[in-house]
Amino acid sequence: MKKYVEDLNFQGEEYVSEWTPWSPQDIRRKKCVLEAARLMVDSAMTAPCAGGVPSIEAHIVYGQEELEAIARKVEEIAHTQESWKEPFLYEAVMVRDSDVIIFLGNTRCHETPLDAGCGMCGGTLDCGYFYEKKTTKYGLVDITDRSSKRMINGPLCTVRVGDLGYAVGSALWTAATLMVDARPFASLGMAGQKMGYCPKSGMVVGVPVAAKAKNPYVDVNVDYHLINMDKALDNTRKIYQTARIIRGFDYRKWIPKPQKPDGPKTDGPKTDGEDK
Known about the structure:
41% of the residues lie in helices and 10% in strands. It is of the alpha+beta class. Helix 1 packs across helix 5 and helix 2 crosses helix 6. It is elongated. It starts with 23 loop residues before the first helix and ends with a helix.
């Protein structure tokens, strides 16, 4: 058995700041958010579920390239349906402004319904509506055909989807307790599912998490995909650089030089000769 060795070297200092993005001090801040996200996943995993049967899986995603890929997938989905376009494009900006993305999915809602005869899905009390729309054999749902062009391949068991809601709610409660900003989005869930996150789930919800001075998920501008902090900073760079080029003067020539006095001046008392 390997002997436990305790590391007692507990000293040092860490500088943490939100600015500039992806600087060492900002990455330290993001790591704090990552720890909060892991605790949020713990809360989701221990949320109540029908029958006490585990049905929740999770993915935690972080990193500049990874978040950019998710944002681009959300933008891609936004243009597939006009009613989604504006909110989804806004939410893609929020992905880029996040520190960590959590994906939570339910692994049973599309394959193993509760079979409780509850009728919560709006169908018959024998779950007939669910099974009639699925490919089945021996009473089992065949989910091997994943070629559906729909964003969510329903129908889904409403009770299992409710379990996913409890999981998301538990994660958000932990986020509020830990004082980090988080908000669930269906757009992120759709994008994450298309990218292979939570691969066993029939429905996925994306929860971006951030710890910044301003909550990035509320109080956004109109046309937020065009008017946001990243665009504003880049536009400022463009204007500033263009102004420098247009000016085109040699700084050694146009910088004002201090003026020399015409002659020596004295503040002493005047003599009789000077008055004459």
